[in-house]
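Is this the right way to post structure tokens for a design question? Let me know if I should format differently. Anyway, here goes:
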């Protein structure tokens, strides 16, 4: 085995965002770009010598080439063994599980999640630690620092590995084990859920449509939903993973999964609709005629998880990202456990899960998960819903109606302003931050600001502090607007505006979300001067 030490130089802009490093695919294909990042990861964890890692990706364009580079670099850096999913395709939650199951030193995940794939679209890479979750802030900072001082990387000059062949191969002394990406994940799901109950649900004539969006969950959903649980063949749509996701955005929300949502709103809707994203960690849940917001889904799952084997002892606690609605907090309060508000990004849930402080966690951006892995998990969320539906023998609509009657309803919506010039986005945020202390008691239409701050998180487990995590503005005590800049975009800046209004025991069919949220939207557009800074008030994507 010939190890080559290649001279390199720091490439600017390799700062990982909310979920690792994301850039245009062509950028990743530039000489040394991926290599610099991967070497910086190894350097940040005191080298790869004698270590074991998992490597997998969502199958998008450049996935296989990137995996070959990583394998050759791991061999050159002295790793013992790499576990790779067959054809390099593994969902993000399944990578997390493989890391934990095999007690490896971590793993590398190749994905740009829900962003489109292709040579002119997006690519990404992130490092997960030995708990199976995204690298901590500390490790991410080290990786980034290393990318700014790197001057060489190591790689072997060897043949490519055959990624399609299950079993062991070798690069020099390093073992490459190619595994079936679905098998271990399926075993885990069988342990968590009552498969017989879900089987009985399908046997009773319950119809489901799962949109895999031509992304990674296709093979998982077919094997589990159709194969194991007896959902009608064809229940999984767009089930063949494609390098460009069929040209679409593999993002499970009413905008990008419109065909499924349209079906669910039509007269021929099945009982349950669900979708997952590029790398299989996000989920969308739709009932007959009713889209369930991710915040409501987290709240319903929090209230009902005890009906399912894995959570029958009840939950230790629940965590939600700051912009996620407070619906799950109300459930936690009533059921008598703690709820945590963390910054956006899954890594913050990891320390709470590791410490046993929470069992479930979720984000408004269609991410829900539990202590079974250290990533959000799309298919897991679908199975949890199905198990609850099978137990309660009620429809999604009935469950939501009962939930809102009991806890009240947090009307919620997220408005994204995309491809905004970076300067304009920063100026808008800076302007609000500079005026934060003057906001309380100011009136905007019918609303009065009751509190305004910049969110700063004190991790209760390791004591670390993460500041500047977004602006929170509360009105009248029961409405809230949040403003933050996206950390995952690849073009300009994205301003995210999150709107929320609590209505006690509302009649869900009488109020439209747009109407309920109109006052808080108008208030925040005015106080943050959207027209002056962005030249517009209309968002590009409303979800
Ligand atoms: C977005 C979501 C966030 C999620 C992340 C990764 O990040 O808003 O909740 O954790 O993608 O899936 P953002 O672009 O807002 O930084
Ligand atoms: Zn994702």
């Amino acid at each position: 085995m010939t190890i080559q030490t290649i001279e390199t130089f720091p490439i600017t802009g390799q700062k990982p965002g909310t979920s690792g490093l994301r850039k245009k695919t062509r950028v990743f294909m530039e000489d040394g770009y991926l290599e610099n990042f991967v070497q910086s990861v190894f350097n940040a964890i005191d080298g790869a010598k004698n270590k074991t890692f998992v490597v997998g990706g969502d199958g998008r364009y450049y996935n296989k080439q990137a995996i070959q580079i990583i394998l050759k670099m791991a061999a050159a850096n002295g790793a013992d063994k790499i576990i790779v999913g067959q054809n390099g395709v593994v969902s993000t939650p399944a990578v997390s599980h493989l890391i934990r199951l095999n007690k490896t030193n971590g793993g590398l995940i190749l994905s740009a999640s829900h962003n489109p794939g292709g040579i002119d679209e997006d690519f990404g890479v992130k490092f997960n630690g030995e708990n199976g979750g995204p690298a901590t802030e500390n490790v991410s900072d080290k990786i980034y620092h290393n990318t700014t001082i790197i001057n060489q990387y190591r790689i072997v000059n060897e043949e490519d590995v055959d990624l399609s062949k299950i079993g062991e191969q070798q690069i020099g002394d390093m073992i490459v084990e190619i595994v079936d990406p679905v098998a271990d994940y399926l075993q885990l799901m069988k342990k968590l859920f009552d498969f017989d109950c879900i089987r009985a649900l399908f046997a009773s004539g319950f119809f489901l449509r799962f949109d895999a969006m031509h992304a990674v969950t296709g093979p998982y959903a077919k094997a589990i939903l159709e194969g194991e649980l007896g959902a009608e063949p064809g229940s999984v749509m767009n089930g063949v993973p494609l390098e460009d996701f069929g040209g679409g955005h593999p993002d499970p929300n009413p905008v990008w999964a419109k065909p499924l949502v349209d079906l669910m709103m039509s007269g021929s809707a099945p009982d349950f609709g669900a979708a997952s994203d590029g790398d299989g960690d996000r989920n969308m849940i739709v009932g007959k005629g009713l889209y369930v917001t991710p915040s409501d889904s987290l709240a319903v799952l929090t209230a009902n998880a005890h009906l399912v084997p894995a959570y029958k002892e009840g939950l230790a606690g629940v965590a939600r990202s700051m912009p996620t609605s407070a619906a799950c907090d109300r459930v936690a309060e009533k059921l008598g456990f703690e709820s945590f508000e963390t910054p956006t990004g899954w890594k913050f849930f990891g320390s709470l899960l590791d410490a046993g402080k929470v069992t479930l966690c979720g984000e408004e951006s269609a991410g829900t998960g539990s202590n079974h892995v250290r990533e959000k998990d799309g298919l897991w969320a679908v199975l949890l819903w199905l198990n609850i539906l099978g137990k309660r023998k009620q429809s999604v609509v009935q469950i939501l109606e009962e939930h809102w009657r009991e806890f009240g309803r947090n009307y919620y919506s997220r408005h994204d302003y995309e491809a905004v010039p970076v300067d304009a986005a920063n100026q808008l945020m800076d302007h609000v931050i500079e005026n934060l202390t003057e906001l309380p008691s100011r009136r905007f239409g019918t609303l009065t600001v009751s509190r305004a701050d910049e969110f700063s998180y004190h991790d209760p487990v390791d004591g670390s502090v993460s500041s500047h995590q977004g602006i929170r503005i509360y009105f009248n005590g029961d409405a809230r607007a949040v403003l933050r800049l996206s950390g995952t975009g690849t073009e300009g800046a994205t301003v995210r505006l999150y709107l929320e209004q609590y209505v006690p025991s509302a009649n869900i069919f009488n109020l439209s979300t747009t109407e309920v949220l109109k006052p808080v939207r108008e208030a925040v557009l005015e106080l943050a001067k959207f027209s002056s800074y962005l030249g517009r008030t209309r968002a590009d994507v409303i979800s």
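Format looks fine. Someone answered above. Worth noting: The chain has 17 helices and 27 strands. The chain has three domains: 3-179, 185-407, 409-542.
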